[in-house]
């Protein structure tokens, strides 16, 4: 199933790139003032149609799907959760920091996830039960793993943050961390790539202190879990999916280390 999800994500990426290379993205604004382009819709149709053909017994919820009543969704134990183009603002800005996200949610938890980066061709995938996370590039495939931090020795900390959201709260948190570490480096990035940086051990901590939707995080969440990291809400409980009518996530922390250490650091 995971390999099929990877293939579908890559096919959607090709559709996105075809539009990325044109002058007119067909930008519209949705009811929540977020942008929608021809690429979002093209990728949505590729993914939903392919998943429906390959796995007709499993429902699909995409960011661009028609809204479903929670009374319907709450009956789902397993379903695909899709963001056909995560980082639409980055797509419009032509900075390459956008992804195709496909996750399989099983009993409120990401079980499989694929994050494909159309511009670079890089693909991250995660099998949570198998505890295997893979990064695929033009040079081949390799396993990735989240890393721990030497908290006792102070050391250096790499924090990744949103390019567009939550800057004041993030700055305050980074200031607190600088009292605990010899050096704290902050890098900003768009889309679900921030979670993937933690999954592959290139960043230690991603605090999300601004709104996201469940389809924004689910695929990369699976990659983080498969790589040995975790995603926790501000009460240090695991982030879960399809538990409420509202599809917004709470604020959360993505870490590559043990929750107990980070709970003490952030208390």
Highlighted features:
Fructose-1,6-Bisphosphatase, Chain A, domain 1; 32% helix; seven-stranded mixed beta sheet; 2 domains; single chain; 8 helices; three-stranded antiparallel beta sheet; 267 residues; D-Maltodextrin-Binding Protein, domain 2; alpha+beta
What is the strand tally? 14
**Quick check: average pLDDT?**
93
- Strand share of the residues? 25-35%
Radius of gyration: 18 Å
Q: What is the fold named in CATH at topology level of the largest domain?
A: Fructose-1,6-Bisphosphatase, Chain A, domain 1
N-to-C SSE string, H for helix and E for strand: HEEHEHEHEEEEEEHEHEHEEH
Can you tell me the CATH class of the largest domain? Alpha Beta
Could you give a short account of the major beta sheet? 7 strands, mixed
Query: How many angstroms separate the termini?
Result: 40 Å
Number of helices: 8
SS class: alpha+beta
Number of domains: 2
Helix content: 25-40%
Give me the side-by-side strand order of the main sheet.
3-4-5-6-7-8-9
Q: Architecture of the largest domain in CATH? A: 2-Layer Sandwich
Low-confidence stretches: none
Query: Can you say what the CATH homologous superfamily of the largest domain is?
Result: Fructose-1,6-Bisphosphatase, subunit A, domain 1
């Amino acid at each position: 199933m995971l390999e099929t999800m990877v293939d579908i994500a890559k096919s959607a990426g090709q559709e996105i790139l075809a539009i990325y290379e044109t002058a007119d993205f067909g930008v519209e604004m949705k009811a929540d003032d977020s942008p929608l382009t021809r690429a979002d819709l093209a990728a949505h149709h590729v993914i939903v149609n392919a998943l429906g053909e390959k796995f007709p017994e499993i429902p699909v919820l995409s960011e661009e799907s028609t809204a479903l009543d929670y009374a319907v969704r709450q009956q789902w134990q397993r379903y695909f959760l899709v963001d056909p183009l995560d980082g639409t603002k980055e797509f419009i800005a032509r900075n390459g920091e956008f992804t195709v996200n496909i996750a399989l949610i099983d009993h409120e938890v990401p079980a499989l996830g694929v994050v494909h980066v159309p511009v670079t061709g890089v693909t991250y995938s995660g099998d949570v039960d198998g505890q295997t996370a893979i990064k695929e590039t033009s040079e081949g495939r390799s396993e990735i793993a989240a890393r721990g931090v030497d908290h006792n020795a102070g050391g250096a900390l790499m924090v990744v943050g949103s390019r567009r959201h939550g800057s004041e709260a993030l700055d305050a948190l980074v200031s607190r961390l600088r009292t605990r570490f010899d050096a704290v480096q902050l890098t900003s990035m768009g889309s679900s790539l921030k979670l993937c940086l933690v999954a592959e051990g290139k960043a230690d901590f991603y605090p999300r202190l601004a709104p996201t939707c469940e389809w924004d995080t689910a695929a990369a969440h699976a990659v983080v879990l498969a790589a040995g990291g975790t995603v926790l809400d501000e009460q240090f409980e695991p982030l879960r999916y399809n538990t409420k009518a509202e599809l917004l996530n709470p604020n959360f922390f993505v870490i590559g280390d043990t929750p107990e250490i980070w709970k003490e650091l952030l208390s």
